[in-house]
Design brief:
By secondary structure, this protein is α/β, with parallel strands linked by helices. It has one domain: Rossmann fold (3-Layer(aba) Sandwich). The chain is 38% helix and 24% strand. It has a seven-stranded mixed β-sheet, with helices on both faces. Helix 2 (19-28) crosses helix 10 (214-223). The longest helix is centred in the last third of the chain and has 19 residues, at 233-251. The radius of gyration is 19 Å and the shape is globular.
């Protein structure tokens, strides 16, 4: 049974600062996909002149940092996150780019805007961190203009399967870990969105990563286990490092497959 409070507390621990997110993004820079995930996602949004955009859970702002040259100057963009530290980092990353962006702390379950204010709402890898997805989707639909677009990315149930299997050997990946996330995955997203949106489409992005050194992988793993929730992780860390080192010595690489999905949907006219 998933616990809404646990989901919310884990998200707060994960994103109390930008380091965890930065370490996770860094791992994917070793991937074989020639197109970065932020560039791929941005290409699917297809921003138009004069559109008003809200991004929920903007993190460090990398979606815009990597694509700033392609942002129409006539757009009006609100970047939001529930974490002030993440939002501060996003503002720091984007402050010199002269983009039509403002920044705001927002809880996706209580969006502080009136009805039908935005042409596009974006939520990248964030719906599974929301305890009450239904409440958030009602809010997203409410603030979208008629036929407005919702762009949401997530991950497959098979995302980083090799790493999950490896961590399971050390008792670090279990049912308890799964219960720290709400149910919004590649495999389930369409059904979750269907009550609130129409014209739902789905595309998949795959990135095969071959890690050849210890540091980026161990930093990624550490980002999954915040000290406040997993105080004993440091005791297991030397065993993980030894095991990863042995794999690298034997196979010259540690293989991980990233499987990301993106849903595009339009607001139901009667919602």
């Amino acid at each position: 049974m998933k616990n809404d409070r646990s989901i919310k507390e884990y998200a707060k621990l994960q994103y109390n600062s930008h380091e965890n997110l930065t370490n996770r993004m860094n791992l994917w820079s070793y991937g074989s996909n020639p197109e970065s995930l932020p560039k791929w996602i941005f290409s699917k949004i297809q921003l138009q002149e004069n559109e008003r955009i809200l991004e929920l859970g903007c993190g460090t702002g990398h979606l815009w940092l990597e694509n700033y040259r392609n942002v129409p100057s006539t757009c009006s963009i609100v970047l939001s996150d529930f974490s002030q530290k993440m939002l501060t980092k996003a503002e720091e990353n984007l402050s010199s780019l002269n983009l039509p962006i403002s920044f705001k702390i927002i809880d996706a379950e209580k969006i502080p805007y009136g009805n039908q204010k935005f042409d596009v709402v974006i939520g990248c890898h964030m719906l599974y961190h929301i305890p009450n997805i239904e409440k958030a989707l009602i809010e997203i639909s409410r603030v979208l203009k008629p036929s407005g677009r919702f762009i949401s990315s997530t991950i497959s149930q098979h995302h980083i399967r090799e790493l999950k299997d490896f961590l399971s050997e050390f008792g670090l990946y279990s049912e308890e870990k799964l219960n720290l996330f709400s149910e919004f995955r590649n495999e389930t997203g369409r059904d979750v969105l269907k009550p609130y949106f129409t014209e739902i489409s789905f595309e998949e992005y795959i990135n095969h990563v071959n890690i050849t050194t210890l540091a980026p992988l161990i930093k990624y793993i550490e980002s999954m286990y915040p000290k406040k929730k997993y105080p004993n992780f440091q005791e297991v860390k030397p065993q993980l490092e030894n095991a990863i080192t042995n794999i690298l010595e034997k196979n010259y690489k540690f293989e991980i497959t990233g499987i990301v999905g993106l849903f595009k949907a339009k607001k139901l006219i009667n919602s």
